[in-house]
Each structure stands twice: as structure tokens, then as C-alpha cells.
Amino acid sequence: MFNLTLTFDNGPDRDTTPGVLDLLAREHIRSTFFVLGDKIRERHGRQLAARAAAESHWIGNHTMHHKVPLGEAPQPTAAALEEIDGTQVLLGDLSHHDHLFRPFGRGGAIGPHLLSRAALERLTAGAYTIVLWNSIPRDWAEPDSWVETALEHCRSQPWTLMVLHDLPTGAMRHLARFIDLARAAGAQFRQNFPPECVPLLRGKPMRALDAFVNSNGGQHG
Ligand SMILES: [Zn+2]
Predict the structure, then answer these.
(1) How far is the CA of 45 from the centre of ligand 1 (A)?
(2) Closest listed residue to residue 183, CA positions, set 27, 41, 57, 22
(3) CA-CA distances (angstroms) from residue 139 to 26, 128, 172?
(4) Which of 2, 76, 164, 166 has the most CB atoms lying inside 10 A of its own CB?
(5) Dist. CA 104 → ligand 1 center (Å)
(6) pTM summary value
């Protein structure tokens, strides 16, 4: 038996998200969609995020543009405002009340590139909750073989918080098979997050955040 929390990043996507939502509804699985501001600006993106929220999924903030990690932004203060708060304004009442925020990690790496000091200040002041991850099966890069990697991650730890992508890579064609195999292997699906993946909860540090903050950035803010 193991716990499994599914999250879907970088959407919503007109061609992919509806099928993911249909499947999750059939399987009675609730998840979190970490959406991009640039996508929920679009009418269809907002409608899909609204559908997800109406179907009891949680909606989180995954930055506006998803291009430069906040810890590497040349203008950290401006970037933090636009990427974090700008996206939160677009989310409006679709947002989970804990202001879930997942930094852009570029390939899923966890390190000081994730945040700048300015970004951490914004997240603290805005009572955000940082949601990291402990499983990146690289579905975007291995659209036909991520399922085996994902199952290995599930078996290797008591509670997996997995990042998948509701993007048109073809990977989501295998989501139903993954869910079946995970259930057969003993998965208990949950919507909440393992505490070790949540270093900031409603603006309060749950542990030292130095490992996620580029302390050399910010001087040109
Ligand atoms: Zn992402």
C-alpha cells in the first residue's frame, strides 16, 4: 500500500485537459491542476480550470509564463510580482484558499533556482503555500514509457506527490493504464500533499527554505 497524490502542471490544454478530467471523474480521483496564467487568460483555459474546480479538483498557481525560474530572473522583484501575484489575480476565485503555488523547476529539479528572495517575500506576504513534489516521471519527455517510471516512484516511498502534465504530448493516453496499475499495486489516491513537499504553508515556513532560494539574486531587483 502507498499513498499517491496526482498533480497536473502547465495546462489547461484544450485538447488534453477534458479527457484527463473525464478519466479522473470516472475513477473518483481528485487532484490539483497547477495552471499557467498565460493559459487561463484564454477563455477556453479559464473554462477548463473552472470545470476542474467545479469537479472538486484544486487549482494552483504555476506562474504566468513558465520560462525563467524565479531564482534566475534578471529582475527578481518584477518577475515575482508578475509571475506569482499576476497569475493569482487571473486565478481569482478559482484558486484554492491556501493559495497553492508551485515554482517552475525547469525539468523538475529542486534547488536554489526555484525562488529569489523577492519571490519568497511575495509568497510569505501573500500567505501562499509552496507545493513541491517528490516524483517527476518525465511524462513530457517519455510519453510512452513514463508509466513504468511512475510506478517505480510509487513503490519506493510511502507517499508520492507526482507531477504529470495535461499537455498534448501523448503521455495522457497512458493515464488510465497508469491508474489501473497503481491501484493494482496498492495505491490509495489522496488529494492533499505529503508535508515534506510543503515547505511554506499559508505564508508560514514549515522548515528552512534556503535550499530553494537563490541568495545571490535580487540585488538588481
Ligand atoms: Zn511546469
Answers:
(1) 16
(2) 27
(3) 22, 27, 8
(4) 166
(5) 5
(6) 0.97
